[in-house]
Amino acid sequence: MSALLQVENLAKRFGGIVATDDVVFNIPEGELHAVIGPNGAGKTTLISQLFGQLMPDSGRVTFAGTDITRLPMHQRSALGLARSFQITSLFLDLSVLDNVALAVQAHAGHSFHFWRDARKQSELRDPARAVLDRAGLAHLGNRSAAALSHGERRQLELAMALAGSPRMLLLDEPMAGLGPEESARMVDMLRELKRKYTILLVEHDMEAVFALADRITVLVYGRVIASGPPDEIRGNAQVREAYLGEEDHVEGAVNG
Q: pTM for the whole thing?
């Protein structure tokens, strides 16, 4: 199976700090591929290079057969890459529906006359409603984004990432800060999304990772130490060693 996303020898340094070190992996279409690693492993730096917020010092990123290594974010987005962030960035004074309509508008290449257009145009609001339904937020369309719970805000951010009809989602810590019930809802949502989208998931919640991932890549100090299916990663001695000293639930999840 040919790779939708291919990462070859990706490297990024900040002064003397090696953030990513000769990273190699690929993701075929239809796969949910998780990237895990201890704090400071370089996971967010990696995802930022894949989406174009950071340019690598060396290496290559290929998406859908196109070399995107030096492309700006908006061109990667136009090719079908979408990213969610570790920290949500929403228009809190607008409704849930208006937030997604703005995202539809941005992906369609319209200018941001959103105070007037996004609220009125059916060609923006109809697809926005469809996206909200996919994200499990259809019942909250008229609610102010400021009134959402933390978990609902994470769902809204995912809905905004879906607004451009992407081929692949880059998700950075979608479970961050969620309580048990919200985490369970997010896992259910991601399970539904993986039926329709190729997903790269950067996540600390090991329970969610092992429940969802088709394959897992493990980063330590910016370098890949293991990559394979969950059972293989679970039994990998290097992975267990890398997580020694991490929180008990992380070690427990890796060890099964």
A: 0.88
